[in-house]
């Protein structure tokens, strides 16, 4: 794989977890790793987390963060080809620009901000504006260590048009694990006593539609990645619930996002937004072409 993997660092614990995950990901794909620290307004970013060792301000702090990240990455991946850059620009534009020539951008779920938010503003902004895939590293333990050998793919209402599906299959292939492709469906009449499908126990036509959409979405990738063990799942209920439940025992959740017509960035949608904020494992947002 010629394109490098980009990871953003800022000295926070979340960025360290993202860096460790990115090193493992780059090794899996045989890709180079580019470490990026971007900050134009260091003075306004606030202090380092409590308990962090003191470091010089300004340029000295940036150099310390980048050097520490590079040292950690090299120790974790001794044969990994890596570069480390300090970008004198705001964090989000810097990561977006760096990501244009990468196969993906990796960020932590939170930065150095003091508010206990489930998802940091930088992660959300990069995920919603990047031209290529963005992985937000969240969760811990087995989820970030690849301990479940399981990738989850969310297939939306209209089906994914290829980018997210292909990304998920490649991830499952390099990990040698299983891929669960999930398509949620809902029936407003389900549970109503007079509803024919409730009385007869017959399959709801919406479930059959979901099964067809799921089969259609993964058909090409199943042929391209014969080594991947695919499990097709149609789940009744909100897509958010199905994906969050699946994330509890997954190494990665992959979701697709549509580009906004006539606008920059992509449309995350409420399901992707909820998954980014509450998933138990890293989440990859893949813009559809």
Automatic annotation (TrEMBL):
InterPro entries: Rossmann-like_a/b/a_fold, Universal_stress_UspA, UspA
Recorded family membership: Belongs to the universal stress protein A family.
Ranges for domain UspA: 4-138, 148-287
Name this protein carries in UniProt: Universal stress protein
Upper taxonomic lineage: Bacteria, Bacillati, Actinomycetota, Actinomycetes, Kitasatosporales
Pfam families: Usp (PF00582)
Transmembrane segments: none
Signal peptide boundaries: none
């Amino acid at each position: 794989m010629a394109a490098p993997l980009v990871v953003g660092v800022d000295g926070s614990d979340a960025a360290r977890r993202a860096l460790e995950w990115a090193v493992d990901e780059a090794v899996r794909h045989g890709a180079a790793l580019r470490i990026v620290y971007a900050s134009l307004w260091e003075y306004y970013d606030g202090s380092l987390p409590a308990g962090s060792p003191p470091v010089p301000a300004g340029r000295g702090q940036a150099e310390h963060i980048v050097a520490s990240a590079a040292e950690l990455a090299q120790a974790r991946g001794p044969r990994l080809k890596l570069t480390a850059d300090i970008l004198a620009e705001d964090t989000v534009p810097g990561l977006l620009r760096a990501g244009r020539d990468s196969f993906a951008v990796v960020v932590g779920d939170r930065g150095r901000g003091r508010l206990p938010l489930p998802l940091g503003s930088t992660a959300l902004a990069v995920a919603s504006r990047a031209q290529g895939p963005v992985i937000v590293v969240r969760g811990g333990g087995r989820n970030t260590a690849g301990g479940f050998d399981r990738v989850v793919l969310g297939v939306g209402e209209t089906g994914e048009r290829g980018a997210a599906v292909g990304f998920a299959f490649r991830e499952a292939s390099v990990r040698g694990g299983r891929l669960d492709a999930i398509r949620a469906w809902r029936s407003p009449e389900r549970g109503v006593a007079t509803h024919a499908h409730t009385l007869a126990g017959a399959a709801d036509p919406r479930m059959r539609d979901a099964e067809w959409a799921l089969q259609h979405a993964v058909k090409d990738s199943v042929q391209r990645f014969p080594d991947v063990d695919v499990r097709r799942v149609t789940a009744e209920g909100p897509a958010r619930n199905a994906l969050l439940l699946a994330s509890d025992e997954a190494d990665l959740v992959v979701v697709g996002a549509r580009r906004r017509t006539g606008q920059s960035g992509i449309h995350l949608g409420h399901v992707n937004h909820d998954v980014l904020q509450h998933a138990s494992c890293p989440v990859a947002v893949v813009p559809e072409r």
